[in-house]
Design a protein that fits this description.
Blueprint: H1 3-28, H2 37-58, E1 62-66, E2 68-73, H3 79-83, E3 89-91, E4 106-108, H4 112-118, E5 122-128, H5 134-137, E6 144-147, E7 155-160, E8 170-178, E9 184-188, E10 194-199, E11 205-211, E12 216-226, E13 229-240, E14 247-252, H6 257-268, E15 272-280, E16 283-286, H7 294-297, E17 302-306, H8 307-312, H9 316-325, E18 329-333, H10 340-347, E19 352-354, E20 359-361, H11 369-377, E21 399-401, E22 404-406, E23 411-415, E24 421-428, E25 431-436, H12 443-446, H13 450-464, E26 472-473, E27 478-479, E28 484-487, E29 494-496, E30 502-504, E31 511-514, E32 520-526, E33 529-536, H14 542-558, E34 568-572, H15 576-594
Parallel strand pairs: 2-3, 2-5, 3-4, 5-6, 14-15, 14-17, 17-18, 18-25, 26-33, 27-33
Antiparallel strand pairs: 1-34, 7-8, 8-11, 9-10, 9-12, 12-13, 15-16, 19-22, 20-21, 23-24, 24-25, 28-31, 29-30, 29-32, 32-33
Helix pairs in contact: 1-2, 2-15
Length: 602
């Protein structure tokens, strides 16, 4: 309970006691000593008046005073905006006003917080130009903001750099253009070679793929062309980390084409593959036998079992599940219809299996004849050609079980062109479990759909495999000379700039602010772990920076603490008028109680 409420309750109690005292005195007094009725009413009313005036003396009521308005000039503020009549103008550093430019009513400030301190009582600002930068958004949260973003010039408004990749792996760069219909987009490697090119769609979106060659922090270049004219170029930072090859254990109840092609794909993709296949009579083909114990399974990042080898594990399934809870990934694949026992074992892992238990063809997405030929013979690719080169050779049909894996906490990984779920996963402890109902996916490599086969297995392995403990890439959308926020960091973190200068970060709630002085790769060091983030040069991606500032300023207008219709701020009134009135009312009450005015004659 606040002090204001406590004092109010005490004053109310005092008034009630005074009323009771007056009523009892008048009731017990004789007719000759009661006095006039108006005297009794005046004494009753003066007591709450004195209490109310004393309360307002101690706690003066607020009063609304007129608030000041400011105009804030940011980047790309035109001279016509500065010359327009209105409230005073504060020019922030982004406005780039020359000191010799004499414009009436314009003052310069290093940031919005300094301008507000110099103009106390400001409750409303009008933002001119592109919008507020991250430096000034916190200072503007308690203000009423008027902002109309200007139209953006043609250029890149969004760019999504790739995640950290391994040497030799491919990566994807995506983004969107504005004001450039049918513009060409090129991805150029550090050596200056164009590695990918495309025409942006009607919405300006594009997506390009490249290949990381060697480990290290490299910078690709994204070039936007409008015909033969180069509109904009931007750096695409790529962090290539030389990580240990993921370790895969493939266990099958019998040799087969599915295991053969899966092992070939995994080896080509950079996995360290261990294969075990049973041939009957206790004979095992493949690599050296792996015992199903905790120590052996800890060496693998993902294990793949077919339904018969999983059923044959018996008590070893508990050991595998313990390895999954410790972080290993597990994929169970079907090679044919499941019997009732195997189906129950799969459902015991937390999945539901709806639908029939028959074989059905997989609905594949259409492919053009040119793409079919290019995939078959390896035209335009450095990869080896597939096993079949003519359409006259026999090829297997791609089949799947009609069982659909699902469940309340499962996530779909693969769906065919008809929308049927073929693979799903769910979390268990630190690891993940997946089910795959495709029975002969290897046939994709024999029917000109090697790309689809690689996509299927790459997606499943990337989802299920144990996460690699490697360097972290921080997604920071920042420019040199501009504040960036770093979160989820420890209290002993520091940042090393490209020139080697080290800065200690002051963290609060596991977040810290950092002002980079130069562009390039920056390294965050915390508790022995190293992370990287890229800072863009000041003059790069200006359209994207303008779009970001405009969107953030528009969102800040919705965070304003000033309600519609408020034109000022609330401040307490001066207590002196109430104190004088309380003193006069108390004196009047004291005099009336002791005077003989209104009393009956003796």
């Amino acid at each position: 309970m606040t002090m204001e409420r406590i004092v109010g309750l005490l004053l109310i109690a005092a008034v009630l006691l005074g009323w009771v005292r007056l009523w009892l005195w008048r009731r017990q007094a004789t007719e000759a000593h009661r006095g006039r009725m108006w005297r009794f009413i005046a004494l009753m009313m003066l007591q709450p008046a004195c209490a109310a005036l004393l309360f307002m003396t101690l706690f003066p009521p607020p009063v609304s005073v007129p608030g000041n308005a400011l105009r804030v000039a940011t980047a790309e503020t035109s001279r016509s905006m500065l010359l327009a009549s209105g409230p005073p103008i504060i020019a922030l550093p982004e406005a780039h006003l020359a000191p010799e430019s004499h414009v009436a009513n314009v003052a310069q400030a290093p940031d919005l917080g300094s301008a507000l301190r110099a103009h106390a009582g400001t409750t409303r600002i009008q933002v001119l130009g592109e919008g507020l930068t991250p430096r000034d958004r916190d200072a503007a949260r308690r203000l009423r903001i008027d902002f109309t973003p200007p139209p953006l010039p043609p250029g890149i408004i969004s760019l999504s750099p790739p995640e950290m990749v391994a040497p030799g792996a491919s990566f994807t760069v995506g983004g969107q253009l504005t004001g450039l219909p049918k513009a060409g987009v090129d991805l150029i490697d550090p050596a200056g070679r164009v590695t990918a090119t495309m025409i942006a769609d009607r919405n300006g979106r594009f997506r390009l793929s490249g290949t990381a060659r060697t480990a290290g922090s490299v910078t690709f270049t994204l070039r936007v062309r409008d015909g033969s004219r180069i509109v904009e170029e931007a750096a695409v930072p790529v962090l290539v980390q030389d990580m240990a090859a993921p370790r895969v254990l493939i266990v099958a109840a019998a040799p087969g084409a599915e295991v053969k092609y899966l092992r070939r794909w995994a080896s080509d993709a950079g996995f360290a593959v261990t294969t075990q296949m049973q041939t009957g009579g206790g004979v095992t083909l493949g690599d050296a036998p792996v015992s199903m114990d905790a120590g052996s399974l800890r060496r693998f990042d993902v294990a793949i079992f077919d339904e018969r080898s999983w059923a044959a594990l018996g008590g070893g399934r508990g050991v595998v599940m313990a390895a999954v809870r410790d972080g290993m990934g597990l994929l169970l694949r079907a090679s044919g219809p499941l019997d009732a026992t195997t189906r129950g074992q799969w459902q015991a892992l937390g999945f539901t299996l709806s639908g029939g238990n028959e074989m059905a063809p997989v609905a594949l997405p259409p492919i053009s004849s040119a793409e079919m030929a290019r995939t078959r013979v390896g035209i335009g690719s450095q990869e080896a050609p597939v096993d079949i080169a003519t359409p006259d050779d026999s090829a297997p049909e791609i089949s799947r079980l009609t069982l659909v894996p699902g469940g309340a906490d499962t996530v779909s990984m693969i769906k065919d062109a008809g929308g049927a779920t073929m693979a799903a996963w769910r979390a268990m402890g630190k690891g993940r479990i997946g089910l795959f109902t495709g029975t002969d996916s290897y046939g994709l490599t024999l029917t000109g759909r090697r790309d689809l086969y690689e996509t299927w297995w790459s997606d499943m392995m990337s989802v299920l495999a144990r996460p690699a403990t490697a360097m972290r890439l921080i997604d920071v959308n920042g420019w040199a000379g501009e504040r960036v926020s770093l979160c989820a960091i420890g209290c002993d973190a520091s940042v090393t700039a490209p020139d080697g200068r080290r800065s200690i970060l002051a963290t609060m709630d596991r977040c810290a602010a950092y002002w980079p002085r130069m562009a390039g790769w920056h390294w965050l060091n915390e508790q022995g772990r190293k992370s990287a983030f890229y800072i863009r040069p000041v003059d790069m991606l200006k359209v994207m920076q303008a779009a970001r500032n405009a969107n953030a300023t528009l969102m800040s207008t919705g965070e304003s603490k000033v309600r519609d219709g408020e034109t000022g701020t609330s401040v307490p009134m001066s207590p002196w008028p109430f104190a004088i009135a309380w003193l006069l009312a108390s004196a009047l009450l004291w005099w009336l109680e002791r005077s003989r005015l209104g009393r009956a004659a003796a």
